[in-house]
């Protein structure tokens, strides 16, 4: 379970006064924050929203294993009512298989705990470091590789963030900061913009990479104020979104991505290969085409990590290679993401050919 609330994170990270917004921008901020606050937070509420009858609900309900349901209604609206195999529903609905234990699946499969030189910092790769900017998301994906990450042990006070940034400032080889989480765009503007201000003060940093699912699941978050702040940055900004199925891409997502592109943000996508959701070549090809239509370049196709509670999503390497080869036969090269596996202790992601 990710314990921090948006209000807690905002109070911990805010280092300046309120961000000044026009009336139109204030309305945009209110819209996305209301949508976030009104998210579906129980499996029962999600199934009721999708018009399942009481008997079906009872058959589909499972223990959440301490990882609570969280689904924005804007995302749930793209699900097919009364369809237990809907590919978006399967990403967010707890299943009984999560309670099963397997020796190869554990709570920290990437050994991130071994790469924490300061609170909120993960430094595994040369030239770039990752900041855990938020301990919460706008959606809780059941396959999340950080669903067991100890956010509560790394709560970030202002002093701790200064310590994190001071640690990064000492590394003259750093050129890129990666904001992750949780989800950094789940922060409101005041703490997020204050953190960007601090990162921009580090002279050796040339690029800012933001990993976020919000442009997909809560596109209202991509406000004019956010886009303007990113456009004004001295850093090259890359936003890596996360989409697993073409059904996730709708007109609202397209509009959000257009705003980001107009702000000069480079858009990439990473997909997790998930059994029963997207492990078919036609599904994967449709996703890449939908992404490109939205102005997003395919980047990575990840084999799932060995995370405890996610074994029912797992796709074997041999199947992944076959799917990737079939994609190469059907798509132009620029629409074929790199098939990768992240392995603990490696200096980079492992390319699977």
Word description of this protein:
This protein is of the alpha/beta class and 353 residues long. The chain has one domain: TIM Barrel (Alpha-Beta Barrel). The chain is built from 13 helices and 9 strands. Strands 1-2-3-4-5-6-7-8-9 form a 9-stranded mixed beta sheet. It is globular, with a radius of gyration of 20 Å.
Unreliable residue stretches: 1-6, 8-17
Instruction: Count every beta strand, where a strand is a DSSP E run of 2 or more residues.
Output: 9
**Amino-to-carboxy terminus distance:** 35 Å
Mean pLDDT: 88
**Domain module tally:** 1
Figure out the total of helices. 13
Q: Which geometry do the CA atoms define?
A: globular
Strand content: 5-15%
| Biggest pleated-sheet summary | 9 strands, mixed
Output the strand order for the largest sheet. 1-2-3-4-5-6-7-8-9
The CATH architecture is: Alpha-Beta Barrel
Name the descriptors.
nine-stranded mixed beta sheet, 353 residues, TIM Barrel, alpha/beta, 9 strands, single chain, 13 helices
Write a brief structural summary.
The chain is α/β, with parallel strands linked by helices.
Blueprint (SSEs and pairs):
Elements: H1 6-13, H2 23-37, H3 43-49, H4 54-60, H5 73-76, H6 89-92, E1 121-122, E2 128-132, H7 158-169, E3 176-180, H8 189-200, E4 207-211, H9 214-217, H10 224-232, E5 236-242, H11 251-262, E6 266-272, H12 281-293, E7 297-302, H13 317-330, E8 338-341, E9 350-351
Parallel strand pairs: 2-3, 3-4, 4-5, 5-6, 6-7, 7-8
Antiparallel strand pairs: 1-2, 8-9
Helix pairs in contact: 1-8, 12-13
